[in-house]
Amino acid sequence: MKFKSKLVPGKLIRRYKRFLTDVELEDGSTVIAHCTNSGSMKTCIEEGAPVYLTQHNDPKRKTQFTWEMIFINNHWIGINTSVPNILVYEAVRDQIIPQLNMYTNVKREVKFGDSRFDVFAENEAEKCFIEVKNVTLREGNKATFPDAVTTRGLKHLNTLIEVKKAGMRAVMFYVIQRQDIESFSPAKDIDPKYAEGLKEAINNGVEVIPYMANVTPEKIELLKEIPFYI
C-alpha cells in the first residue's frame, strides 16, 4: 500500500481521549490528529518521538490530519488500524500470500451471521472469510494481541468457528506493524478470554496467519510470516 500523498512529519506531544493526538510540526505549530487506534497503545506511545501524519482537505472532517506511524526502537510502527485491512485485501487479490493465493473473487466487508468480516475470498471450489487485526503491542521479542480487552474480537473468533462449521474456510489474520519482534502470541495476561477463544477457534479449524509488515513513510507492505505460539 503506497501513500497517495507525501506524509507530514512531526513529533508526538500527547495522545488523549483515545482518538486524539497533539503533534508538533516542523514549523513549530501544533495540530490535532485523529488516532484510529482505540487500544491502549502502551508500547507505541513515546512523547517527543517522530511521527508521520496524512493530511486531508475534507471540510467535513473534525481534524485535518490522521496519525499513521511513530518511530520507536529504531523502527517505524504503523498505528492506523485501517491499514491492515487494505494490506490483506490487496495481498489476497494479487495472490501474494502463499496460503491464500488460490482465489479469483475477493471482496471487502462481507457479512456472515451477526459479524462483518474484513475480507471475503472465493473460487469455484470454496469460500473463505478472513478477519484482520492490527498488532502493535510488544512484549520482549514477541508481538501480542490484544493490547486491551476486546469483546468484539472474541465475537469475531466465535463467528469464525460458525463459518468453519458451515463448511467454509475461516482465517484469523494478524498484521504486526512493527519489525522489532520475532514471533506472535495472544496476550493472555491482558485478555485471557480472548486467548482462550483463539485456542478454541484453532481447535475448531480456524486458521491463524501472523504477518510482519514493513512500515515506511512511503509505503506499508506485508513482509513475511512469523512464528505463532498459542
Automatic annotation (TrEMBL):
Residues 13-79 form the SfsA N-terminal OB domain. One of its GO terms (molecular function) is DNA binding. It comes from the Bacteria. Residues 83-218 form the Sugar fermentation stimulation protein C-terminal domain. InterPro entries: SfsA, SfsA_C, SfsA_N. Belongs to the SfsA family. This is Sugar fermentation stimulation protein homolog. It comes from Plebeiibacterium sediminum.
